[in-house]
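Cross-check.
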Amino acid sequence: NHDYHHDPCACSGDPNDCAQVNWDVDDLSHFYMPGYNWYRAHEDLDLEVVALDLNKFMDGWNMTAKAHELKFSDCQWTPCAAACFGNADARADQAFDLFRERLERSKARNLLVFSHYPTDYFSSVPAFLANLSDASQRDIVFFGGHRHNVDNTSTWKTPPNRNWVVGGGGGWSCDGPSQGFLVGTVGADYWVDTYPELVDYDLCCQSPRTSTTADPSRTSTRPSDPALVP
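Predicted model, tokenized:
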């Protein structure tokens, strides 16, 4: 996620300083997250999970921007904007390196790759999108969030592989009519099947509430995400 405005993770280069990092895979009270970028093999399912920190591309909705022009804009809310920008750039470079490494070295039939952002935020890095589309050695399924909807129609397509935006379920906003979650199953033939389970829109999405006290960390001056324009 990008909401670590007061998390030491923004300013530190040590993943152990990050509030969300948890190395203990047996700790079922917290999400397993052993670093900024990581992978874990599940040999019994013939798949690997690959996690990528790509907060540098927070403003990737702007498809006219070049990769070198993009930055982790939430750094403005941290006490260390310059260090935060540098950390986000470094973590994105490490993310792409890890993904390329797993493409080359993994023996798994499936790669389940996820980041906070959907594929349409990465138009400035076509090599990454090309790698997500590479089915020559294995199937790749990519999952992104950020946009609060569940669909595979608003994203940048990666055929013959698949990708989804899975940010539905309410929260800060609802960015489309498809609210719910995505189900993934692994069959006896190790094929990964994905399908959405949706709920009534009104269960997740209510009219905005107004407040006399604005939270500056939740204020955005950016224009509408073009991916949300019909």
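Confidence is low (pLDDT under 50) at residues 210-230. The helical segments are 81-105, 126-132, 201-204. Passed to J.P. for a second look.
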